[in-house]
Amino acid sequence: MTTDKLLEIKDLRGGIEGKEILKGLSLSLGAGEVHAIMGPNGSGKSTLSKILAGHPSYSATSGTATFDGQDLLTLAPDERSRRGLFLAFQYPQEIPGVSILNFLRTAFNARLEKDMPVLEFRKLLYAKMEMLGMDKAFATRFVNDGFSGGEKKRNEILQMAVLQPKLAILDETDSGLDIDALKIVSNGVNTIAAGSDPKPAVLVITHYNRILDYLKPDVIHILANGTIVKSGGPELALELESRGYEWVGDEAEAAAGARPLV
Fold first, then answer.
1. Which of the 8 DSSP states describes residue 135?
2. Are 58 and 17 in contact (CB under 8 A)?
3. Is residue 33 within 8 Å of 216, Cβ to Cβ?
4. What is the pLDDT of residues 98-146, one digit of tens each?
């Protein structure tokens, strides 16, 4: 595990339509590290991912987020992507009429600001699909059109493999997956990390411990009421599994009550 701070967030506040959801969140993520953020519904997990990715409906009101030495919050969404940030969506959108090959070639060319010929990109895409154990016929299907939940998430991981981000944010990628699909998606993330130099940093946002059995995070953070209230190793996820989130909320309230008024 390296000590380089690829992503550093300090006292970040923000939300949507004037509603503050993040309330002073701080987090550091080193290159090649895997961190997991867990928390109950409404705690701010997906809001964090959307603010980092530059979703137009979400905004930061104060605090900082530095990515690879750059002020992330001042960059347009496409510039964040070009600098190496990738977001795997919880609910990937369907794009009927657009093949996966053409979609990924367009994204790849925009990401790297180059125009790779179709045949050359097809060779690259097929190599990534082989690495992930995917049938080449998948490339001719329309993006997420008629896909099962597992196929949509595998398509997200294929995008990650092609774009080779420095930081991959997986926003509840395990949502709706059965155990077999979960293993396939997790193995795909692990395969990409193992085959990349340098390895990407991965920020996993999840409700449940089960995906962490396969991704093996270095650090787990618990998010409650818009801020990280506890961080620790894999044993923290096991504690959540047995005790639920209520005890975390109690600790957060106790800590807030102990802070001096300013």
1. -
2. no
3. no
4. 999 999 999 999 988 889 999 999 999 999 999 888 999 999 999 999 9
Give the position of tokens 């969140």: 25
**What residues contact residue 10 under an 8 Å CB cut-off, 6+ apart?**
26, 63, 64, 65
Query: Using CA atoms, how far apart are residues 43 and 29, in angstroms rounded to an integer?
Result: 20
d(CA 262, CA 256): 13
Give the fold, CATH level 3, of 5-258.
Rossmann fold (3.40.50)
Residue type, 64: T
User: Beta strand 227-232 with 219-224: parallel, antiparallel or unpaired?
Assistant: antiparallel
Q: Give the amino acid at 11.
A: D
CA 225, 231, 234: angle at the middle one, nearest 5? 125
- C-alpha 238/C-alpha 171 separation (Å) is 20
Domain positions in the chain are 5-258
Which pTM does this prediction carry?
A: 0.89
